């Protein structure tokens, strides 16, 4: 392993904070060091690298194009450094304190309550506030420590860790399938049938089914939409249409007793990845690491119960 670097890693992290704050004064206040020290560290970093990272005048601070690329790498270094710190901290102390968590409604009260109960039982000095939310929230702007969500991460100041993938399947009630004019054998047939849509799905995300290497994009007529799988399941049970459901959390019992049946077997929906998102500055939190472990374990238990 290379022992020496041509620049000061601490200065790189200071540079990252200046970029985030867009101000030397604000960054120095957050870092708890004099503004003159921050300025000196930045000048030394630019000299060591032989490039210009920032352009500053009395009214504005801007980042050069190369500076933006350097910042992205610095953010990754900070993530790794905090991961090391988290590993050390977790070995020294039991998680304690309060954790505020936002989970989307679609994960369901059963999953949220089981994760919460497991976490609280394991860590008696912790406190937990879980809010089930209808819309995507931001962990910093909306006052949460941790947010569960889907889709790509849009904010480089946040960390995202995948908790689980919902394996979705197309399904309907036996009564709905029996009243169809012809058996369902082709994905294109779904475009003429009423569809029960899960409303939290990204509007830009197409509903796609895959069989071997064949992909087919669906454009079904939405009869009903809800941001809760429990609501969607009731619509399907009442024979109102075809829907996409996850068996890990919602449909285990119904698949077992036959009140919900898969349609188009062999055609798989793309999985829905659920991530746990939190700010960089909390990446060393033992509370967050412990909650992540509990969230993952409950999914494993759910899968084992199928």
From TrEMBL:
Pfam families found in the cross-reference section: HTH_1, LysR_substrate
Record keywords, A-Z: DNA-binding, Transcription, Transcription regulation
Source superkingdom: Bacteria
CDD domains documented for this protein: PBP2_CrgA_like (cd08422)
InterPro entries, per database record: LysR-type_TF_proteobact-type, LysR_HTH_N, LysR_subst-bd, WH-like_DNA-bd_sf, WH_DNA-bd_sf
Database matches in Gene3D superfamilies: 3.40.190.290, Winged helix-like DNA-binding domain superfamily/Winged helix DNA-binding domain
Keyword Transcription: yes
Domain HTH lysR-type: 7-64
Spans through the membrane: none
Family according to the record: Belongs to the LysR transcriptional regulatory family.
Protein name: LysR family transcriptional regulator
